[in-house]
Amino acid sequence: MKYLKYILGIIAILAIGFFLLGVIKSEVSYDCQVIVDKPLAESWAVSQDESKMADWLEGFQKIEHISGTPDSVGAVSDVHFITEGQEMVIRETITEIVPNESVAMTFTSDFMDMDYKLSMNAVDGKTKISSSTNAKGNGMFSKSLMALMSSSIKEQEETNLANLKKVIEENESTTPTLISETLELTHCESAVYDAQNNRIYASLIGNREDGDGSVATIGLDGKILNKTFVAGLNDPKGIAITKDKLYVSDVTELVEADLKTGKILNKYTSESIAFLNDVAIDNSGNVYVSDTRTSEIYQLGTNGNFSLWLADAALDNPNGLLVQGNTMYVASWGSAPEGGRVSKIDMNTKSVDSISTIIGNLDGIRPYDANRMIISDWRSGNIHLIDAEGNTENILTVGQSVGDIAYVKEKQLLLLPMNKQSRLLFYKLK
């Protein structure tokens, strides 16, 4: 009996000590850092690329978007992990994001709450990656465990950063490099390259006064050739060209202009049109234009007939259009701020199928290589590569309002029209 009292006393002391651990040290805070032998822009792009996260975050499975605009402040997602054979789901909320600089978020689970910030700085052509973590247990038991687990939690973060360093340094770079920019392009929205005349066409919305919009011509050196090549437009957006004609959407009209002179030849419209956006042309010469507000696509046939081609809620406020053979790819704006996805249309049956989950408020979509396309997210400023199965890779983040992009494969040139900044960015992209 005497020994039993001693044993019970020891157990009581241990229990009190365990309890006090949770009272005295219920939070764990630590900082970690690594130096990566890659430029800042590439390091940032790799760290934000969901397709690479399983390579450096132990147990990572997927991110399930819940609400808000992806990759923006306020976005909420469930992050799925597998730990010791068991699935664990952590709720993530982005609280701060500055492209190429830092991202901060809160993580919430049954066991603990965590404030986390990942920062990057350029240092002599390399990148210093720093992380700051503050974790707090939920409930007295988990708070007490936090005190005992503090060193192992920090070790896991150090391992994650070491893995991230390896993934970045072994990454085969597709990160674009800024080479020049053209300024004073008032609310530049769309860009198209004309190989025949070796020049770029850019739609300029202007100051939203009737008639002050235009299509400008720009040299490959970034110099403005003619700011009003096609003049007298209202709010021009998407552009597409044929051998001798230029087509540009202008609010409720599809405008046809002479490719050599810029003279307006025809205007096409319909009573039901609300907000025309991107323009695409198929191999037969039929012209298509999206109506973002009505989830419709119109067609200008080679016979000159302009009519509704497809109306389908599955288009989800279509923006960017890309025709490849008998398939049309659609980059949807979706709803704000949640965003849209990429879909494909069988142009024979007109059936619409999604190929991705929600990505963002999408704008431009252009071919990149035999298997992938480039898409732009207007709201977040992200530029992604996406394949036909919907797998995405973030290759660049620029400012909000990146519009209808262009990619000139033979010149390794990516053109990014920046609406709010009134400029056109020239990037080298292999």
UniProtKB/TrEMBL annotation:
Domain of life per record: Bacteria
Ranges that cross the membrane: 7-24
Pfam families: Polyketide_cyc2 (PF10604)
Gene3D superfamilies registered for this protein in UniProt: 3.30.530.20, TolB, C-terminal domain (2.120.10.30)
Keywords recorded for this protein, A-Z: Membrane, Transmembrane, Transmembrane helix
Protein name: Polyketide cyclase / dehydrase and lipid transport
Protein species of origin: Winogradskyella jejuensis
Classification of source organism: Bacteria, Pseudomonadati, Bacteroidota, Flavobacteriia, Flavobacteriales
